[in-house]
Design brief:
Number of strands: 20
Number of helices: 13
Largest sheet: 9 strands, antiparallel
Oligomer: single chain
Shape: globular
């Protein structure tokens, strides 16, 4: 991919993604296979006035080795320096950029049971710091074309051609090929207009039905809004948390879903693919799951904590989205979740609540914002998906018809 185009993409991430402020620290998380793009991105952050750019490098192969050879006790330990690092982040509130280029199957040989136990143990330590930073800083997840990922998406191409085709797909669906900043200004405007319409309807429920067997009713929170595109931190700084993004989403009421929903795309979870699955809800919680591939991993996921069995997000994405119309299965949640409608199990978004800055964590819990160590999106959109909204006075409004917006 031409260096000029990649510079414009890096500028989009730094300027419209996290919106780096003069004097602010920037922390980038990236895989070891992306040194060149990280260098380009760091330069863009510095040109916007970043005080310093810190890079946290990750590598799936090392994580697999850790899971195989490290003791569970050592994996579960949270060292003093890790606590100090979290405290430091709470104090300085760096802008966080997460670059995703990982192989979708990169963790398939890992000990998932040990990784799950590690997450549970570490979350007990991390939770107060996560809550202390919630909504106070800018963050953005964006993608970079990795070799293994590219070969997964384009298996019949040689590596160099696969990487080039994946870059083209990333940049096209991220609206970054021509005038990226202007594209995102217009895109945010369109998404926010959809939110205004939905928020004016005073919806109490969403009822999902599809030819594949999906029949699910979800209760919404009275205090919640639909959000989309750019958001604002409690410091009043606008940022775009996902590049790309096509979704209009809200946080439903925890423990208030009934019925069954079928996946329409594979789910990449902890570096492994869960495929052809369904999730059934009774009395608001998951009561049954089935998957043709990696059912054990799906069962493990919903048992991470009590909140993992409840919904934390309802996201509306038209079937005729740029990502879905590309005809590419990305095997990557950032893209596949923006191809069609999706739900998320686990943690809800407190910033969906009206006047969210006025409430404590306990008040969010009391009103029904789900709490969990996980937030996992899975795709349910299809060409036959209908979504009917039921208002507080009992009226029915067609929100989606045949997979696309009806409003």
């Amino acid at each position: 991919m031409k260096s000029k185009i990649l510079r414009e993409y890096a500028k989009l991430i730094a300027q419209k993604g996290v919106n780096v402020q003069p004097g602010q620290e920037v922390w980038i998380t990236a895989s070891l296979d992306q040194p060149k793009f990280v260098e380009v991105l760091a330069k863009e952050c510095y040109q916007l006035g970043a005080k310093k750019v810190v890079v946290d490098w990750t590598h799936d192969k090392l994580s697999v080795l850790d899971s195989k050879f490290m003791s569970q006790e050592a994996m579960n330990e949270t060292a003093d320096w890790e606590v100090a690092k979290m405290k430091y982040q709470c104090d300085v509130l760096p802008a966080r950029i997460y670059l995703d280029s990982d192989d979708p199957d990169g963790m398939k040989d890992a000990r998932q049971d040990k990784i799950a136990a590690q997450r549970i143990a570490k979350y007990a330590i991390r939770k107060p710091y996560i809550e202390a930073m919630d909504n106070k800083y800018q963050w953005c997840i964006a993608a970079v074309a990795g070799k293994e990922w590219a070969k997964k998406v384009f298996p019949n191409e040689r590596v160099s051609a696969a990487v080039e085709k994946l870059w083209e797909a990333i940049l096209y669906t991220s609206r970054a090929l021509t005038t990226p900043i202007e594209n995102w200004n217009a895109h945010n405007k369109n998404l926010h207009e959809k939110c205004d319409i939905l928020n004016s309807l005073n919806l109490k429920y969403l009822h999902y039905k599809s030819d594949n067997g999906t029949d699910l009713k979800v209760e919404l929170l009275e205090q919640a809004n639909f959000l989309a595109g750019s958001e604002k931190s409690l410091q009043g700084i606008e940022f775009n948390p996902n590049i790309p993004s096509e979704e209009v989403f809200t946080t439903p009421k925890a423990g208030a879903a009934e019925g069954i929903v079928y996946s329409t795309k594979p789910l990449s979870y902890q570096g492994a693919l869960i495929e052809n699955f369904y999730v059934k809800f009774k009395d608001g919680k998951v009561c049954e799951v089935f998957a043709e591939k990696n059912q054990d991993l799906l069962s493990q996921m919903i048992n991470m904590d009590d909140g993992a069995k409840m919904l934390g997000e309802c996201a509306l994405v038209p079937f005729d989205s740029p990502i879905n119309n590309s005809g590419i299965l990305f095997y990557n949640t950032l893209f596949d979740e923006n191809a069609s409608c999706h739900l998320a199990l686990g943690r809800g978004f407190s910033n969906c609540i009206k006047d969210f800055d006025k409430y404590s964590q306990q008040e969010f819990d009391d009103m029904g914002v789900n709490t969990s160590m996980i937030h996992v999106d899975f795709m349910i959109g299809s060409k036959s998906l209908d979504i009917v909204g039921i208002t507080k006075d009992g009226a029915k409004v067609q929100i989606f018809k045949n997979g696309n917006w009806a409003i």
